[in-house]
Specification:
With 147 residues, the protein is mostly helical. Helices cover 48% and strands 8% of the residues. The mean pLDDT is 88.
Length: 147
Amino acid sequence: MTSNGMEYKPLIETALAAAKDQSFDTVSFIWMQGESDANNRLSEVYEESFIKLVNKLKKDLGRDDLQFVIARINDYARSRPDNDHWRSVRETQVKLGKTPGNAWIDTDDLNGGDANKPDGDIHFPEEGAVILGQRFADKAIELITKP
């Protein structure tokens, strides 16, 4: 992950404040990132970095049972000749999402691609973002309702 980590502390503080004096049977973390890792050719460390992030979240939130739903980055870069890192991040995201207790969602149809712009865009148009949120919610609910 290419971030300098500035976002992590506010994330934890916000989550802990929102959960104060409440109990939860389950906690699911949703993740939609990886484009910068692919573009910066960091695919080889993506899996290790993600696992470290999840383990840190589990520790800092006090939730060893934290589950995650990871959205696979879309197929925007599929026609670029140098898309090996993009493809690798996508494959790693699916692999991570298939680990026990976790899941992944497909985003290839959400990037606004059509006959005029077959690759779509790296970011989702508004309607794609809404559907992405629905898919995250559906998959998280599916995870918590599994026996």
